[in-house]
Amino acid sequence: MVSNDGSTVLPDLAPPRAFDQACRMVVDYLAATLPLGAWAVTRVAAGWQTVLVAHDRDYGLQPGWGNRWSATMCRTMVTGETPRIVPDTTWVPALAVPAETAAAADVPVAAYVGTPIVHPDGELFGTLIGINQQPVDAGFVAHEGLLDLLSSLLSSVLEADTNTVDSARELERAVSDAETDQLTGLLNRRGWTRWLEREEERFRRFGDPACVLMMDLDGLKQVNDTQGHEAGDRYLQRTAETLRRATRHGDPLARLGGDEFAMVATIGPDDAGPLVARLQRVLDDAGTPCSIGVAPVGVASGFSEAISEADAAMYDDKRARKGRSGSTDA
To answer: Does 250 lie in the same domain as 149?
Structure first.
C-alpha cells in the first residue's frame, strides 16, 4: 500500500502454515489498512461462490454464505468485463444497480474490489474481494498492486497446502483391515467415521463442494428371508460393486452395517439431484433398488449436519418409494 509520504508499505505477515490461516491474516490486514464494509476470501466451484473467511462490519458475510456465480460481480471481474477496482459501481454499467433495486436494498454495493486466486495451472480457485456501501475515492485504484500481491500470496499458500493435503490423502487411502468392511471392500463404520474426522477440517479450509448421500437398500430383508443369507451377502456385494463403478475415484463409499451405505460426493448442490437419480437407476438395473437421501456439506455446519439432513431425506425417499410400490419390505 502507499503511505502518507508516498512510500510503499508492504504487509507485515508472518509465514502462514495453512491456507485458512493465510486467508484470515490477509482479510484482517486489509480491514485494518484499507477499511471497507467487508473483506472476504471466497471459493468458486460447482456454479457457486462461497465465503470462506470474512472480516465484515456492514454486510453480515459469514463463512458458508453463497450466491450463484453467474449472478456475482466477481464473475465479470474474472472474465475481464469489469475492472478489479471500481470506486463507484455507477461508473460501470455492468455493475450498476437499477435505482429501484438500490432503493429497496438494505446493503447496496457502491464500491467493489476483487482479484482472482488461482491454482498453479491458472484454474480459478476463488477471489479476494472488498465491498462498501458508499463509493470510495478514485485514488483507491492505486492499491491494485497490493491486492494482486496478496492474491498471489494466497495462491502460493494454496498450492503448498493442497500438495500437502493430497500427499496425506494418498497415504490414508491404504486403510487398515480394521477400517474395511470385509464383505464389500468398502469402508466400514469405523473407517467412515475416521475419514470424516480427517476430512472435516480440510473441507472447511478449502470450501470444496461436497454432498453426503445416505443409502438404505429396499430389498435385502426379502432376499435374506426367501433365499438365505448367502444370497443376501451376494446382494450386498453386487450393490457395493455397482456403487463403486458409478462413482468417481476418491469419493469415499462406506457400508455402515446391515443394508446401510454412505458416500461423500465432491459435487455442488445443483448436481446432487442428478447424481441420486443416476445411482438409483443403475442400482435398479442391477436388481438392488435403494432409497437415497442427499444433503450439501456447509462450510460452517460441516459433515454432521449434512449427515442428519441426508438421513432424514433418505427415510422420506423410502416412504415415498414404498407408497409407489405398495411394498412392506424394510
So the answer is: no
Max distance between CA atoms of the chain, in angstroms, equals 87
How far, in whole angstroms, is CA 204 from its chain's centroid?
8
Residue 282 structural domain: 175-325
The answer to whether residue 320 is domain-embedded is yes
Instruction: Look up residue 23 and give its three cell numbers.
Output: 486467508
The count of domains in the chain is 2
Which amino acid is residue 208, in one-letter code?
D
pLDDT tens sequence across 200-215: 988 989 999 999 999 9
DSSP class per residue in 185-212: SSB-HHHHHHHHHHHHHHHHHH----EE
305 and 185 share a domain?
A: yes
**Pair 99, 204 in one domain:** no
Whole-number Cα distances in Å, 271 to 222, 261, 267 = 32, 20, 6
- The 8 Å CB, 24+ separation contacts for 71-80 are 73/109, 73/112, 73/114, 74/42, 74/44, 74/49, 74/114, 74/127, 74/129, 75/49, 77/112, 77/114, 77/115, 77/116, 77/127, 78/114, 78/116, 78/124, 78/127
Q: Which residues does residue 213 pair with via DSSP β-bridges, in sequence order?
A: 263, 294
Confirm whether 9 is domain-assigned.
no
Q: How confident is the model at residue 5 (pLDDT cuts 50, 70, 90)?
A: very low
On whether the CB atoms of residues 293 and 320 are closer than 8 A, the answer is: no
pLDDT at 178: 86
Do residues 84 and 49 both lie within one domain?
yes
How far out from the chain centre does Cα 316 lie?
25
CATH number, position 98 = 3.30.450.40
Q: What's the pTM value of the predicted model, to 2 decimals?
A: 0.84
Assess whether pLDDT exceeds 50 at residue 69.
Answer: yes
Residue 93 in 3-state DSSP? coil
How much is the pLDDT for 167?
81
**CB 27 within 8 Å of CB 55:** yes
The answer to whether residue 107 sits within a structural domain is yes
